[in-house]
């Protein structure tokens, strides 16, 4: 059975890209090349909320992810959220992500509405959705990023 890990982080820095890199470092995936996919969980897969990724392979490897990401220049608030629900009996499932310059309650509502809509499109018997939201205040003169990622398996060589 394969594993998808849910990781998250927030960080502030003097540039937008530096804050994103620092948020990825908090999530433990700063040394990988992230490849975004849409939001389907394969059957026979375990989803674990771990916070910070373990060692997933050498620096520079490719990681397949579903990513919720938002960056703002301070002052302001930034939030990112990821929800997931799997069909029962180890069937496939869905992720749904939302992010923006808003509070965590708004993002959680958007994630829950989105995943419910995705469930309605499929003839699967789903488990109750789980949601992870990260939110942070950006101070004046800094950039702040919030990320929540679903990381599929381990890194793979990119070259």
Distance between the termini: 26 Å
Number of domains as seen in the coordinates: 1
Element order: H for helix, E for strand = EHEEEEEEHEE
Mean pLDDT across all residues, rounded?
96
Low-confidence stretches: none
Give the percentage of residues in beta strands: over 45%
Provide the CATH top-level class.
Answer: Alpha Beta
Just name the CATH architecture: 3-Layer(bba) Sandwich
Rg over CA atoms, rounded to whole Å, is 16 Å
Helix content: 10-25%
Query: Which superfamily, in CATH terms, is the homologous superfamily?
Result: Pyruvoyl-Dependent Histidine Decarboxylase, subunit B
What CATH calls the topology is: Pyruvoyl-Dependent Histidine Decarboxylase, Chain B
The number of strands is 9
Note the overall shape: flat
Number of helices: 2
What order do the helices and strands come in, and which of them pair?
Elements: E1 2-13, H1 16-27, E2 33-36, E3 40-41, E4 45-51, E5 62-73, E6 76-86, E7 93-100, H2 104-120, E8 130-138, E9 143-156
Parallel strand pairs: 1-4, 2-5
Antiparallel strand pairs: 1-9, 3-7, 5-9, 6-7, 6-8
Written account of the structure:
This protein is of the alpha+beta class and 159 residues long. It has a single domain (2-156), classed as Pyruvoyl-Dependent Histidine Decarboxylase, subunit B (Pyruvoyl-Dependent Histidine Decarboxylase, Chain B, 3-Layer(bba) Sandwich), CATH 3.50.20. It has helices at residues 16-27, 104-120; strands at residues 2-13, 33-36, 40-41, 45-51, 62-73, 76-86, 93-100, 130-138, 143-156. A five-stranded mixed β-sheet has the order 2-5-9-1-4. Strands 3-7-6-8 form a four-stranded antiparallel β-sheet. It is flat, with a radius of gyration of 16 Å. The model has no long low-confidence stretch (mean pLDDT 96). Belongs to the PdaD family.
């Amino acid at each position: 059975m394969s594993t998808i890990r849910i990781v998250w982080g927030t960080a502030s820095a003097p540039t937008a890209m530096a804050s994103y890199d620092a948020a990825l470092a908090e999530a433990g995936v700063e040394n990988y090349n992230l490849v975004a996919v849409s939001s389907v969980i394969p059957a026979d897969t375990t989803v674990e909320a771990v916070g910070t990724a373990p060692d997933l392979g050498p620096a520079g490897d490719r990681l397949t992810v579903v990513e919720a990401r938002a960056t703002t220049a301070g002052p302001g608030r930034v939030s990112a959220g990821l929800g997931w629900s799997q069909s029962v009996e180890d069937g496939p499932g869905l992720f749904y992500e939302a992010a923006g310059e808003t509070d965590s309650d708004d993002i959680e509502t958007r994630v829950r509405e989105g995943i419910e809509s995705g469930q309605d499109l499929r003839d699967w018997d789903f488990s109750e959705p789980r949601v992870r939201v990260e939110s942070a205040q950006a101070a004046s003169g800094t950039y702040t990023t919030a990320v929540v990622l679903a990381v599929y398996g381990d890194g793979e060589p990119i070259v």
